[in-house]
């Protein structure tokens, strides 16, 4: 595992182009486009104001930079054609958690709308922005919509005050409605499996429920208990490495003390023996957005694994085996998990906790890697390169790339099960 | 005791009454008291009888006494003391014989009475003690009764309390339920109210929004609006197909078509998958059926011979079915007919198989009971004896080795001696070399002995377990059958992704097993990747934690490998079977005779070397 040098960054704005050739990053009002392999600057654009959002075009030929400060209030969606002078307007968009969703092939866009105190969903054909379907949804206050990866089913979920998930066909038929319980805070996060076979719903009761694509009924329910008793479950616990005292190098003052504040101790994973009790956070009941429930969900690209984070057990990442429908591994970090993302190519999960380390898990094991460099590089976010060879680590002011593979992928650190060497 | 008295009183009084009756009958008898005393008194009193009688009868009152006695006796039913008078005037004479008879009778009576008295007394005593005992018992029981009564009262009290508590709890539960109901109602009403409020607010908000919109629109200057400065030409040179008023209807239709096409494709894809899955399952069923039939056909003669009506007919049915179903065309028939036939036949087959297995089980248990009568199976006792013998031999050999070691050591020490050392200086090196060689030879022999011993004990255990192995073999055979089916399933699961997601993922586990050899890989990483050798990227040496990374990796992989073993017990089973087979072969090779032969050979060489040793000094 190798690291590139550290580059400047602002606003955590760093994105690989969809074709994997370029890397765009923002520093205040400058947009820098680099080559992914050489990291040489290919282009440097200067904008009029601080960039607040960037987005690559699907063909990697264009980048959009948004400066919201220079925008203008408009209560509609405007679609500009980049080829012709055509402009389309879509009225009544709903401002919610996830109000717009494109199908993976880019053919259709579903939009959540609100008119006359009633939620609606409109499905547009993206080629000509024609309204294909328009239907009202039986939701109190729609919170999000998301297409299944195959683009044939739209999942719609209600506000957190009510547990309700509705599934619509592309032609607007209601396929199924699912409600696990009533009178309690409901859905917190939703994720489709890449195979479109499963819909995982994380809720405020600390459980993930998995619906199947045939009957749209629940297959299983994954609870997130704070104690793990099953000896079949591997619990990796991050632990500070005990400083190895090499007698020859013993110096005064101890070098650790000098560098102690700047670079915290290195850590490693230990396999905890069951039963293991995980650190839990007692939620504050009288505040909005309580720290309970499943805050993050992600399927591995092959749909074999599901990674979840329960907000009441902030230090742990739970990895579930979807084939056997049971808990597989639990990683307990020393600090709360900020984000995690699956390698797009293989079941390999990268985790960051806002510290100077990046953590990787694969079915073969897991590892904690210190990001080298002077000063503290606090990894707040990370994103994988398309081919899973490298990983961009983002801190507040900097970013760097982490290279995981050698050129021919033989010396891969985490062998994909089934690969032949 | 007082109580006792009261209880016995009535008897005493009745006794005394009887006595009173007696006395009343005797009338005016001066000796009535005495007679009474005599009746009641104990033996010592009788000593005084004489003196009493002497007082009773004197020289003067013989006549009177006699007459009195006569009277008395006659009243008691004794014959008269006087002779029968022939005349009235004649004075009646005392009949001595009668007197004596009377006396004798009286004495007999007296003795009897005394005996009776004694009996009565003993009985009385017995009864007294009985009474005592009963008294005790009674007291005890009374106490017990009291305590149990008290206990009962306590229990009743507790019961009452518990009932009270229960009632309270019921009440509480009811209250809670009411509360829950109430709260739910409140929540519901709040929810409706909230929704209502929300709607109101939203309407207001919408109004405001519209207002804002109007304001913005009014103020709007065309120049503020976003515009595309430079239009991009499409790569293919075409102009974008944007919606226009005229073609809207046709566009719409085209879009609809496309949408339905997509949906149709999806459904077709899914149907195909389901069909494939069905086909696979059918295949599996068919294979299972075939195997069952082939398995059961050799056995079918037996049940028929036995005229086992049910199984016999079932088998013949199954055969017919098999004949029908084996035709490939059957598989293309619609689901219902095939499914019914297939499931029925499979069910039948399964029943037969089950009964067969049960039969086998019975046989096994029978064999178990009968013990080993087969000649080719060596009895356990023989084995034990053999092992004991061999162990003894090994022990002896060990002792020999020890003595030889001692001798060698002595030799070595002897070599240290100055004079001898001087003398043997020239030979020493050579001899040492030889000694070393021999020493290693001995070591090896010792090791061999031990190995052989171990193996033989194992063999003994093995052979003892041969019966078990038979059972296991059968079980493994069944398992093999089952596994074959499942593996068949797995092979095809790749084709059916849908199916594979749910099917047991043993193949995946095996994949993780395969991946283990890659554990050493991380070491390669420290070589540094050429990716970072470009000018801009300062390729930093592998991070300090790479070495550690290896550690964790190995640690983790260890765990995962363990995990793999744990997860799939079915997987490990075939290995076990294999190992058993190997063991069997091995045990065949190491029959006790051959073992012995080997041992004797070894000991021979051993002794030879020993002799050589002796020659050494």
UniProtKB/TrEMBL annotation, chain A:
Stored Gene3D superfamilies: YVTN repeat-like/Quinoprotein amine dehydrogenase
Name of protein: WD repeat containing, antisense to TP73
Provenance organism: Felis catus
Gene: WRAP73
Domain of life: Eukaryota
